[in-house]
């Protein structure tokens, strides 16, 4: 069933930012396909077709993208939203945990991108919108692996954008700050916790819980995703929410010593 309407594919669309983005794209005139690891358990959303997809599996990614092409004949926008968090000091989190994180947050984005690019190039247009974070350009103590995964997405997206721009395809970044979702509660804890980090990790947990509770609504981020999807002259990076905008400015203009001091203050670190 080919369509003349633009088609958006949103990963991790069953809740949070992904759900809000799927609904906002429907409102903006897109045919929207949302994905979840188990679509049968997803509460239906008006205007959104759900498919099973595990971004950590090559076969699952290939099958889901092929289903979209067979049903709609096109993919105009890919929103790489599916992701996971991780909280804990570097020394108390195993490499295996980091590998699981990267398999979703980084290699999942790469799998999805490689699957949709041939179709976007063939039609001469397309946008790949990758959900980064303010910790894609800021350090985050007690979330080093997560910050590393988002830093990776920043470098990957910027490099990709240069490769595909001449074919009518753009790779864009959306960078939220704290967002009112289940992120903190759903982030795995360190698998080899150490007593020496317990107090500071606890302080970080409390800071994160409060920040997310008071964070931006998912709809705020969804609005920016739609902007990135429809902007006539898209830019590489879109910060989402006022805090993200301020953080981006701080990173660009603050002297290194001032910036370092602010990071330690924000994360309640001594010295």
TrEMBL record:
Identify the domain of life.
Bacteria
Q: Give the matching Pfam families.
A: adh_short (PF00106)
Report keywords, A-Z.
Oxidoreductase
What family, per the record? Answer: Belongs to the short-chain dehydrogenases/reductases (SDR) family.
NCBIfam families documented for this protein: PRK06179.1
PANTHER family on file:
SHORT CHAIN DEHYDROGENASE, SHORT-CHAIN DEHYDROGENASE_REDUCTASE FAMILY PROTEIN
Tell me the protein's name.
Answer: Oxidoreductase
Species of origin reads: Nonomuraea guangzhouensis
């Amino acid at each position: 069933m080919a369509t003349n309407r633009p088609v958006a594919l949103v990963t991790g669309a069953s809740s949070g930012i992904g759900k809000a983005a799927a609904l906002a794209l429907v409102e903006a005139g897109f045919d929207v396909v949302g994905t979840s690891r188990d679509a049968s358990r997803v509460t239906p959303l008006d205007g959104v077709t759900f498919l099973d997809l595990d971004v950590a599996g090559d076969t699952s990614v290939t099958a889901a993208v092929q289903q979209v092409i067979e049903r709609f004949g096109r993919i105009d926008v890919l929103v790489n939203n599916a992701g996971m968090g991780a909280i804990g000091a570097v020394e108390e989190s195993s490499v295996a945990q980091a590998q699981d994180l990267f398999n979703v947050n980084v290699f999942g984005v790469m799998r999805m991108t490689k699957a949709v690019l041939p179709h976007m190039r063939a039609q001469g247009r397309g946008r790949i919108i990758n959900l980064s974070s303010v910790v894609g350009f800021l350090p985050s103590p007690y979330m080093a692996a997560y910050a590393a995964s988002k830093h990776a997405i920043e470098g990957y997206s910027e490099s990709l954008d240069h490769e595909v721009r001449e074919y009518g395809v753009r790779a864009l970044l959306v960078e939220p700050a704290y967002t009112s979702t289940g992120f903190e509660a759903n982030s795995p804890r360190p698998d080899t916790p150490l007593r020496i980090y317990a107090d500071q990790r606890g302080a970080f947990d409390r800071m994160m819980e409060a920040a997310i509770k008071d964070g931006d609504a998912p709809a705020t981020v969804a609005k920016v995703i739609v902007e990135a999807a429809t902007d006539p002259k898209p830019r590489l990076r879109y910060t989402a929410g006022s805090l993200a905008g301020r953080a981006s400015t701080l990173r660009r203009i603050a002297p290194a010593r001032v910036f370092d001091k602010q990071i330690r203050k924000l994360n309640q670190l001594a010295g």
